[in-house]
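Supplementary Text 2. Reproducibility record for the structural model of the 341-residue chain.

All settings were left at their defaults, and a single model was retained for analysis rather than an ensemble. We include the record here because the model underlies the residue-level annotations in Supplementary Table 4.
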Amino acid sequence: MAPSHYRRAVVIGGTGFLGRHICTALAAQGHDVLAIARKAADPIPRTAFTALDILSADDTEISAALSGAELVINAAGDAWQGDEAAMAASHQPLVQRLVDALAAHARRPRLIHLGSVHEYGPLTPPHPVTEDHTPAPGTVYARTKLAASTHILDATEAGRIDGCVLRVTNVCGPGLPPGSFLGHLTRQLRHTQQTGQPLSLTLADDQRDYIDVRDVATAVLHAATAPVTGRIINIGQGHPTPIRELAHQLIALSGLPPHLIHTRTAPLTSNGSGWTSVDTGLATRLLDWTPRIPLDQSLHDQWATPTEPTAEAGSAAPATPTKPAGPASPGEPVSSSDEGH
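Retained model, structure tokens:
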């Protein structure tokens, strides 16, 4: 999809997992792209970078960074590992400062905010959740993400900004950080390849809606010009996939012999929802978007990408904001408890 015109695009959290792919997709479409994050990371081709902490920067610094922007994407957000204060700061005051800065601009850029499926709260099968579902978030992460999304929608309704929210499901694909279950499992499998040390894997019977990170980036491209002001749009595959199935696909991709992998099934306490699935009909109708990358291809590309992102924690999508239940030390058990954007 070609852009309607040449546009300056600013990606907040642009060096994170989601942000990097969004910057890449925007640059490929001819946009003049600026990534903003607290700290520098590996360069992104055809993307400028500014180190800026929106939480601590003064108003003039934020205004200067956003100068000339016609499109702003907020891909920043803290991970599951953050405490309540950190999550609240990265999700709420950051968004409030961003909204205030955009509202002060004479030209109102489109603001695309990456929300989370967890804003809905715990979901139950079998029907995918629609955007009119009443949110009932049950975790600090979900509550603070919902507060940020609500602030953007309220500011849009008041005529202060031109904003929309893409409510993203669990994300996978190349560059997935080890803070997520699938990213953590990928790292542990690589460690077992290198050391021959057996890996113990505990899997729950969870089923979650996964989407490839590049499909999320494409959805952002579509949302840049679509008539979605003030809307919430679900972005996901539209159906759940068993965690166990995804784990076994990664194990197969690793080529490790069976005697090095020990799996068991057990119920696990989760900060997220054990079952997630979103209805993507609105994305199809309003964005002319559907996911294109099958999960098996996504996992293949994830395994084939050897390096982990060097961005700071908290630049989502996300992330992807997640918290694996298993210990992070190589060779210790990996558990499939929490996962999600």
